[in-house]
Amino acid sequence: MEKYVINGGNTLHGEVEISGAKNAAVAIIPAAVLAQDVCVIENVPNISDVSILFQILNDLGAKVRYLNKNTVEIDTRNITEPVVPYESARHLRASYYFLGAFLGRFGEAHVSPPGGCNFGVRPIDQHIKGFEALGATVTTDYGFINATCDEMFGSHIYLDVVSVGATVNIMLAAVRAKGLTILENAAKEPHIVDLANFLNAMGAQISGAGTDVIKVRGVKALHGGCYSIIPDQIEAGTYMAAVAATGGSVLIRNIIPKHMDCITAKLVEMGIAIEEQGDSIRVTRQHDIQRTNIKTMPYPGFPTDMQPQMAAVLCLANGGTSIINEGIWENRFRYVDEFKRMGAAIQVDGKIAVIEGVGHLTGAPLRACDLRAGAAMVIAGLAASGTTEISCIHFIERGYENLVGKLRGVGADIQIVNQSDDEAAQDVG
Ligand code: EPU
């Protein structure tokens, strides 16, 4: 097993190129099953969540072939069994998108409940409510979620909570249902729009993605084609937060500036200079970090997936109290004890964290506890004085392509090092 070793204190300068969006890729790859044809997908991020989905597709009998580093050809014609077993599904949340995709293609799906980051309870009642509204019967037995139907019919579905996953899964199932599905209170994240654009490019009829009412008119079949995934809003935001924490000036390339507005606005409140330049954004920190408050919300609100990274920056504010209100997940402050060992002053009460800006942090051995918490620990380590070692980096590599290479490219002192057997044993334990 490996760990990151960071010698903190370098300011960051130069350019970083942003990869394709993880949360779009992990929806689009299962969606290719619906095409029952050959799809070429460009700007696919090289991350472990994507590798696992490709492994699942291979196990199902699909052919997955890299045409170059970030372009993949997926041929889903030979899939016959709509089954994803526990061993594959447990690794990531997005494995449950095979439920909607299989239902649409086969009228049947058997998928083990998904894994993913642990932020407390992660129910899927809204996905099931949607499948049932389209005419499926859903049961859970022998370790599988089983969804079956003779035929699916369009329906009027109102989500009780705004859910990215349920919006994706219902869109996938509805694409082949007979007639019109109207999904109200839908999620509006950029990756929802990207999935709808992908499906439309393959012959689906979806309108309204990006608003809270999505309409899907069912079609008899989808076809193959070529599609390019949008840039990753959260990866870009993570590098923006890294520059805010360390100081310096970095041009972040290959982004959609509109997607960054919710993050940019907060960083500006914190005294960071942000300049849009076409499909790039320049982030510069010349002054002390100012305190602020953050409440995470569904898009276009401030994204929960940027909350830990911003907490790292706010620890470095020069005095002042910041309040973070986590509006999506029950338990997304599991990283706080690790930050405290770096000298941070944070108090958590339920979904609220109160952060006293302490001006600087000191390096420490840390253990990543989920993807974004791990990224936040990297940011804290880059800004801290001394050495920070981060273990359990497999969490981070689920969602960041070449994090170490990109950070080294802008002047960070970070490397991947093999852990000793003792260290590795402790991380498994
Ligand atoms: N919820 C329900 N019932 C459901 C579904 C969700 O009550 O049937 C609740 C959840 O408990 C949560 C809220 O609704 O409180 C939002 O959950 P959502 O379904 O939107 O989350 P998700 O689809 O499981 C995706 C991202 C997460 C991101 C959230 C929120 C993917 C693969 N994952 O999760 O991304 O935090 O949306 O934006 O798209 C990450 O990338 O680090 C990550 C965790």
Q: Care to give the gist of this entry?
A:
This protein is α/β, with parallel strands linked by helices and 429 residues long.
Give me the Rg, rounded.
21 Å
- Report low-confidence residues grouped into runs of 5 or more: none
Query: Which molecules other than protein and nucleic acid are bound?
Result: uridine-diphosphate-2(N-acetylglucosaminyl) butyric acid
Broad structural category: alpha/beta
Major sheet: arrangement of strands = 22-23-1-24
**What percent of residues adopt helix (DSSP H or I)?**
25-40%
Q: Overall pLDDT, averaged?
A: 95
Strand content: 25-35%
Shape: globular
- Total count of helical runs of at least 4 residues: 15
Q: What is the β-strand count?
A: 24
Distance separating the two termini: 13 Å
The biggest sheet, with number of strands, parallel, antiparallel or mixed sense and barrel status, is: 4 strands, mixed
Q: What does this entry look like structurally?
A:
With 429 residues, the protein is α/β, with parallel strands linked by helices. It has helices at 22-35, 48-60, 86-89, 97-106, 125-133, 164-174, 190-201, 233-246, 257-269, 307-315, 336-340, 371-383, 394-397, 403-409, 421-428, and strands at 2-7, 12-17, 38-42, 63-68, 71-75, 83-84, 108-111, 137-141, 144-148, 156-158, 180-184, 205-207, 213-217, 225-228, 248-253, 273-277, 280-285, 293-295, 321-325, 345-349, 352-356, 365-367, 387-391, 414-418. The strands form 6 sheets. Strands 22-23-1-24 form a 4-stranded mixed beta sheet. Strands 2-15-17-16 form a 4-stranded mixed beta sheet. Helix 1 (22-35) packs parallel to helix 7 (190-201). It starts with a strand and ends with a helix. Uridine-diphosphate-2(N-acetylglucosaminyl) butyric acid binds at residues 22-23, 26, 93-94, 117, 122-127, 161, 163-166, 187, 304-305, 328-329, 371-372, 399.
